[in-house]
Amino acid sequence: MADPTLRLRQICLLARDLEWTSSVLCTAFDAPVVFQDPRMAAGGNLINTHIRLGDSFLETICPTDLAWQRSTTQTRLLERNGDCGYMAIVQVPDVALASQSMSVQGTRRGIVSGDWNVCPGSPGSGLAGVESGRYVMGEPLPKEPDTVSGANVQFHPRDFGTLAEIQENWPNQSDFPRNKGAYFPAGNTWQNGVDARPHGGVTTGFAAVEIASREGDPEEVCQRWLNGLGAGCSIDPGKPTTLNLSGGQTMRFVEPEPGGRTGVIGVDLWAAPGAYRKFDAMVICGVKWTLVDQPNDRPCESEMA
Q1: Which residues, in sequence order, are bridge partners of residue 10?
Q2: 32: cis peptide before it, omega within 30°?
Q3: How many domains is the chain partitioned into structurally?
Q4: Closest Cα to residue 10, out of 72, 96, 86, 121?
Q5: Which of 28, 198, 220, 273 has its CA at 20 to 30 Å from residue 137's CA atom?
Q6: Contact, 208 vs 254, CB < 8 A?
Q7: What's the rounded Cα separation, in Å, for the pair 236 and 244?
Q8: What is the pTM of this model?
Q9: What's the CA gap between 50 and 187, in Å, rounded?
Q10: CB 182 within 8 A of CB 123
Q11: How far apart are CA 158 and CA 164, in angstroms?
């Protein structure tokens, strides 16, 4: 059985128009923007938004005019694919272990990038006084009293089918549903709205992600994620291209269609219980979004009320 922490926590999209795309996503999923990262904007190349979908987060990033002048990785990807899926982020129980095991999968490229953050306070208290630095592979996440902390590590899409990121945050990252623990990518104030509105009228969060790998057989890529993440994730013998995480979540790996896109091409969303289903499936930002029913053995919001 997978560790309860092991969750598909965030999907990242890449778009040319941040304001328009974010507005479409908020309307489609009945969910608010909860954070725009000022430190990302300060870098000069990218701006972003984070939308909270129940216990999951949907990030959209957009290159700045300066990035287009410089011809960055993101602008070249947009020129090739248009608006598209960009990254899958999985929350892990131990970033020190997972960073090492993920780094030796496939071509053994190691870490593409990684950062740590430590801030005085508690979940929901904001980011005043936050300190950050470059993450060193194998280092444990600092966990001091009266602080919140997080570490993120990214790995190459050629090894994992898409740009891959693992996250560990402290404290309370494994409390589901209605998680209000630390999660640094979305800032540190989003927790304050969870009790009043656990989720919108469309979805309670991610059920699955579908990834089409440009390089590597889908079974092989799925096995790399299994070996890299560990923490009790599993592959059923009858479904060798599907990785089982915690909370009923899965990651599916497929062959790209001829001339089709690669990376994150589809996301399944848990349908909000008792809500009118506004759509079955639709495409936004080059990604197919599909509403699916929550399994009977998965706690839902109506049971938590």
Answers
A1: 57, 89
A2: no
A3: 1
A4: 86
A5: 220
A6: no
A7: 8
A8: 0.95
A9: 9
A10: yes
A11: 10
| DSSP secondary structure letters along 249-269 | -EEEEEPPPTT---EEEEEEE
State the DSSP string of 180-203.
Answer: -S--GGG-SSGGGGTTT-SS-SSE
The alpha-carbon radius of gyration of the chain (Å, integer) is 18
Q: What is the pLDDT along the chain (305 residues), one digit of tens a residue?
A: 899 999 999 999 999 999 999 999 999 999 999 999 999 999 999 999 999 999 999 999 999 999 999 999 999 999 999 999 999 999 999 999 999 999 999 998 888 999 999 999 999 999 999 999 999 999 999 999 999 999 999 999 999 999 999 999 999 999 999 999 999 999 999 999 999 999 999 999 999 999 999 888 999 999 999 999 999 999 999 999 999 999 999 999 999 988 888 999 999 999 999 999 999 999 999 999 999 999 875 555 544 44
Which string of b and e fits 240-279 if b means at least 16 CB within 10 Å?
Answer: ebbbbbbbbbbbbbbebeeeebbbbbbbbbbbbeebeeee
- Two structure tokens written together for 30: 């009945």
CATH number for 288: 3.10.180.10
Residue 45: how many other CB atoms lie within 10 Å: 18
What domain range includes position 290? 1-305
CA 266 to CA 212: how far, in whole Å? 9
- Give me 123's structure tokens: 């979940």
- Residue 115, both tokens: 């950062």
Helices within 82-151 (DSSP H only): 95-103
